Amino acid sequence: MPNPLTSKATNTWKGNLFQGSGTTSLESSGLATFDVDWKARTEEHGGRTNPEELIAAAHSSCFSMAFSNELDSNGTPPTELRTTAEVTFVAGEGITGIKLTCEAQVEGISEADFQRIADAAKTGCPVSQALKATPIELTAKLV
């Protein structure tokens, strides 16, 4: 059985929701600290991030890993995958949807097999699994 790996991020918030702000740090890797606030979540990013952008980063990378593995298992490993995740947040409603878009260079695969494997990767991706209460749309294209 594989050893579990726990990843950690920490947020420090000061003030109330609307005028306050915080920082989110990637603790496990130590690679970055990001400024966050309500305005970046509901109006404009302005050099700050929000939870939805961080979810989008996690989802796009996880989907690419899952898709790469599925393609390799099919005997058609990808040359390159470029996945974008767009996470939509509506104040008062929450996260209302996620759109995954993947452009892929894969040699020797039919369009039907490509689409079938892309859908399997979307379903099997651990981040997709964690977010399955949210509608997830996938557009996958061979380039």
Describe the 3D structure.
The protein folds into 2 domains: 1-49, no CATH class; 51-142, GMP Synthetase, Chain A, domain 3, CATH 3.30.300. The chain contains 4 helices and 6 strands, in the order βββααββααβ. It has helices at residues 38-42, 51-73, 111-124, 126-130; strands at 9-14, 21-26, 33-37, 78-90, 94-106, 136-142. The strands form 2 sheets. Strands 1-2-3 form a 3-stranded antiparallel sheet. The chain has a 3-stranded mixed sheet with strand order 4-5-6, with helices on one face. It is elongated. The relative contact order is 0.14.
CATH level-4 homologous superfamily of the largest domain: K homology (KH) domain
- Estimate nothing, just give the exact number of structural domains: 2
What fraction, in percent, of the residue positions are helical? 25-40%
- Helical stretch tally: 4
Low-pLDDT runs: none
CATH class type of the largest domain: Alpha Beta
Largest sheet report: 3 strands, antiparallel
Total strand segments = 6
The CA-CA distance between the termini, in Å, is 38 Å
- What order do the strands of the largest sheet run in, or round the barrel if closed? 1-2-3
CATH topology of the largest domain: GMP Synthetase, Chain A, domain 3
User: Radius of gyration, Cα only, in angstroms?
Assistant: 17 Å
| Residue-averaged pLDDT | 96
Pfam family, one: OsmC
Protein name: Osmotically inducible protein OsmC
InterPro entries: KH_dom-like_a/b (IPR015946), OsmC/Ohr_fam (IPR003718), OsmC/Ohrsf (IPR036102), OsmC_Ohr_Peroxiredoxin (IPR052707), Peroxiredoxin_OsmC (IPR019904)
GO molecular function: peroxidase activity
